[in-house]
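Shipment paperwork, digital attachment
Item: protein structure file
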Amino acid sequence: MDSMVALEKPELPKPIFIIGSGGQTRETVQLIMDINRALPRWAIMGYIDERLQLHGDIIYGYPVIGNIDCLREHLTSESRIICAIGHPKSRFNAIQQVVAAIPEARFATLVHPTAVIGDDLKIGEGTIVGAHAVLTTNVRIGNHVLVNYGATVSHDSVIESYASILPGCNISGNTVIGEGALIGAGTVVIQQKSVGHWTTVGAGSVVVKSIPDFCKAYGVPAKVVENSADSE
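Attachment content:
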């Protein structure tokens, strides 16, 4: 008699909690739904938001459960968290709150099924890669990065943790986008240039010279117009 081969049980969808409840959150819900159409991987449990007036609301079909302090009682060993906040500093602050309150928290990494992902590529935890994004070869993406829909990141580039690459950006080869940088929609960064830590580049800009840390820049070509530290 032929030996019986045990069939592997399909992996059950993991619970996922979403930090935030704004526009980026709704886009992230759509991304998760798109992932699940190909293979059910995630069970959305609801949103975490510090605004008390939203607690109990239903947004895009899912409840606002409570704030970060409420999150711990809902987590299991299988649970994952994703921070769907578009602005880098706000995302950084929210994640630091989670890590301080729940050191054992584990974060999801979400990549849209239509994204083009090179073989020689590393993507950190908590990162979101949107629809039709293209990440080519030898690209390094840090933790909790947002690469929004239609953005491209070319060969040998580095996107450091907490950066936001907004829709339609073109990041050329051998570039470095610093920690917490915000690259506005439709911006082009030419090859071998860098954008500094926690710097904002305005939408539609063209970066032809490297831009330092902690500043704001925009234009064609992009020029520094404000030191971020001075504006706080």
